[in-house]
Amino acid sequence: MSSQTAQQAQQRNGGREAAVLDAVPKQLLIGGQWIDAEGGATLEVLDPSTGRVLCEVADGSPADGVAALDAAVAAQADFAKTSPRERADILTRAFELLHERIDDLALLMTLEMGKPIAEAKGEITYAAEFFRHFASEATRISGGYQTAPAGGARFLIARQPVGPCLLITPWNFPMAMGTRKLGPAIAAGCTSVIKPAHQTPLSMLALGQILIEAGLPEGVVNIVTAERSGAVMEPLIRSGKARKLSFTGSTKVGKILLEQCADKVLRTSMELGGNAPFIVFEDADLEEAVAGALAAKMRNMGEACTAANRIYVHESIAEEFGRRLGEEMGGMTVGRGTEEGVRVGPLIDQAAQDKVTELVTDAVGLGATVVTGGSAPEGEGYFFTPTVLTGVSPQARMGTEEIFGPVAAITPFSTEEEVVAAANDTPFGLVSYVFTNDLRRALRVSEALESGMVGLNQGVVSNPAAPFGGVKESGLGREGGDTGIDEFLETKYIGIALA
Ligand code: NAP
């Protein structure tokens, strides 16, 4: 998009954008109060479609982090005593407020993160569903009563909140990654300190405001926005006051945090990076497979841990598949996410745009053919033109690294054995996609793929009612589903001697 068009768009939306930005709190939320960071420090929030500053928010210090954790610790005992119904009601009210304010929240998210408004609304809806789901789960926390095998004694099995939690979220889904953690934490009766990514603090701050209005007691959720994430979080992890860390982000940072958590043996949930294979067999419905690839690739401009990273298409249909996907992706309008008709917004920052450019250059250097796109457009903002590459060499860097951009990399294959081996030849294991109309093959391949989730003839797996998570270096634990709340509960066994 030209810079002139970007400026026009901002003028058009100017009044409303300014109002939405003004309305969001810019301070830290600690103990139920909005307060400045130590020394009044602030960090800049940028608009990735222009690179310009949107606003400033508090830049929390290590001391601010400690104050936030102290507030969470102070609130823990009382919050654990609240009834499941009270906690469910708070989540339900927050669910309703998210829907009531969806237009403003979506605009806020688009401004700080870049995704088109329609996708931002989709994320708010998805985020709210975690609150609705865990409102129900709060009232279903169950225990057990059992006779000891030898008779006499009885076992009482109780579920209790883990205790104060540290929650760290990434920039790519600024609201949903927050509610996916806060929903089960609140439902289970845990207090928390949550730290959003420095690029996208605004959605989390708006969520904090909503939780207060929904009646959440003071200190139950504390929000620390900070530029120096490691310096702020490490002392909290090592403090011995927090009992759990739930992290969504890169595998590289996840490994550092796991080491830190070992110090005080914290419970951990790790939602880490992916390198999803997307396999299209020769018997698949081609139209469905192209639509699935479009969804799995282009959701969030390709900036999703679930994004189809390696697209393996049977050699008999690879050319046709590439042509059709190229037509679809080549026809997508790129631009500022606030503009009507835009389907592809900017990448998050300059580093992301540079990395995608490098990966494409590397693949083309190794013989890939560019069907459409292939480079970043001229002008301001961190855009990248939707790109389809065919004949991508298995040696290309994008075979082993997350592309995290709107680039579909197609590699042909000839046999089922070969493609399953290639799909599993990665340290990651978050999600895989399989397109086939052969029932036996569908089950055989789904079972053989080393990933926590499989999309069978569908390009989107995320659903708050399903257990989301990965195996291998993609993570530990599951979020959502009927086990998601377990991550925030301890099991206590009480042995009862009967006379
Ligand atoms: P990231 O660099 O790992 O950052 C994630 C979060 O961790 C941010 O809040 C970041 O804060 C914080 N952080 C960074 N270094 C830290 C440290 N030393 N100590 C404590 N916190 C630290 O990941 P990202 O680039 O933002 O996000 C993209 C990655 O997330 C991709 O790999 C993607 O696959 C993964 N992801 C996974 C899932 C899933 O469910 N499996 C979902 C979404 C994304 P600052 O950025 O402010 O430093």
From TrEMBL:
The active site is at E271. Signal peptide: none annotated. It comes from the Bacteria. It holds the Pfam family Aldedh. InterPro entries: Ald_DH/histidinol_DH, Ald_DH_C, Ald_DH_CS_GLU, Ald_DH_N, Aldehyde_DH_dom, Aldehyde_DH_Superfamily. Keywords: Oxidoreductase. The keyword Oxidoreductase applies. Residues 34-494 form the Aldehyde dehydrogenase domain. Belongs to the aldehyde dehydrogenase family. PANTHER family: SUCCINATE-SEMIALDEHYDE DEHYDROGENASE, MITOCHONDRIAL. This is NAD-dependent succinate-semialdehyde dehydrogenase. It comes from Ornithinimicrobium faecis.
